[in-house]
Amino acid sequence: MSEANPRFWEIFFEVYESLPRQGPGNRACAARALGLCRDLPQAPAILDLGCGVGGQTLQLAELVGAGSIVAIDSHPPSIERLQAAIPERGLARRVRAIVGDMAHPGQPQGSFDLIWSEGALYNIGLRKALDVCHGLLRPGGYLAFTDAVWRRKNPPPEVRAGFDQEYPTMGWLEDDVAAIQECGFELVGHFTLPDEAWWEDFYTPMETRIAELRGKYANDAEASAILDQLAEEPELHRRYSGFYAYEFFVARLPLAPSRPEMIQAPSQ
Ligand code: SAH
What we know:
Blueprint: H1 6-16, H2 27-35, E1 45-49, H3 55-64, E2 68-73, H4 76-88, E3 95-99, E4 112-117, H5 126-136, E5 137-150, H6 157-166, H7 173-182, E6 186-192, H8 196-216, H9 221-240, E7 244-252
Helix pairs in contact: 1-9, 2-3, 8-9
The protein binds S-adenosyl-L-homocysteine (SAH).
S-adenosyl-L-homocysteine binds at residues 21-23, 25, 50-52, 55-56, 72-75, 78, 101-103, 118-120, 123-124.
């Protein structure tokens, strides 16, 4: 079943849009990463890039307790879901969800205290994303993001093929750390997402959703084959999760300008 087939994406979104999150992550990990951002102002200005349906956006709003969040995703139905959830959670004055491209988020430069992004920056390439974030943060601002990394050599071919499709430039922990530093950030801390963060809000609801849709599509061979294909990902994770990980990184912009091009030449 080719991902060029429009039917693939129809069923893919029918599964993914209904999940609390569209990638690994949970509230406990968000709280731990937020705890590493020690010098945040009391009411921070936050940007959530690639927010999906906003599982982490809403948790972050509750964990921070004050300030504002602008949440951006390029997939309009996910933003519509988040827009519906915001007033239900009493967050209409603090959280705004908009359709946009994280490569060109249309937000004022140097204006954010914290940029958050779970499982999304890789979509535009990590280094490009780090450059975008560098421009949007104020000096001393934080960047908290998750990214997939390899953790064992020689993965089974089906694991390799899955990541080659989804994230061909995926590296190792040290590659991400080097990218963070070379793009002008200080690394504050990092930790590996525990296995439950893959299941709670992501693979467990995904398997439940796939099972529901198997009933709906019982007489539709094409849709059933796509569901089989989507069901492989949690199954591969059960067998081979030792080969890769999701790492939470917290980085910070230095308080003084860190890049040569940002340092003004002294006037003669
Ligand atoms: N942060 C969410 C969603 C992760 S899935 C969570 O952890 O649950 C990755 C998200 O990135 C998807 O919702 C996808 O629509 C979004 N995305 C991909 N490319 C994007 C881009 N260029 N700009 C904005 N969002 C993008």
